[in-house]
Design brief:
Largest sheet: none
Low-confidence stretches: none
Distance between the termini: 91 Å
Order of helices and strands: HHHH
Mean pLDDT: 77
Radius of gyration: 32 Å
Strand content: under 5%
Structural class: mainly alpha
Oligomer: single chain
Number of helices: 4
């Protein structure tokens, strides 16, 4: 086992030629300024490429995140409409469902998928119609 005595220059260990050729070139520490500059330029280029890829991935994910949020909101509005329908069929008024429905219909996320956006807009329209019906029934 090798002991570390302090900070000093890096000294490569000797390898047998058979092992070195079997494994390939392996890790090398640059010995001069030219190699260091070339390595820095390659690292900068790689980070630019990976940064561009990450931004593209983030943009693509944001569309799927918006779709997921819009789908979830549409499903929640449908669930509240179903609760409201069941309460009406039982001859009751579910004020909690009306409040939740008003909150859900007030802020609809904008989906990236145009078909999903249309479907959620139609559900939100139905929710607003139900809210208006119950509001006029209350004031009359």
């Amino acid at each position: 086992m090798t002991m570390v005595d302090g900070i000093g220059p890096i000294v490569p260990t000797a390898r047998s030629p058979a092992r070195a050729s079997a494994r390939g070139a392996g890790f090398m520490v640059p010995s001069g300024r030219a190699e260091t500059a070339a390595g820095t330029a390659a690292a900068a280029e790689a980070s630019e490429v990976s940064l561009g890829g990450m931004l593209a991935l983030q943009e693509a994910e944001s569309g799927s995140v918006r779709d997921r949020e819009a789908r979830r909101r549409g499903q929640e509005m449908l669930a509240e409409l179903l609760r409201l329908q069941r309460a009406l069929l039982a001859g009751q008024r579910d004020l909690g469902a009306l409040r939740r429905l008003a909150t859900l219909a007030a802020d609809i996320p904008h989906a990236a998928d145009p078909e999903l956006r249309q479907a959620v807009a139609e559900v939100a329209l139905r929710a607003r119609i139900e809210l208006a019906r119950h509001e006029t029934a209350t004031t009359a």
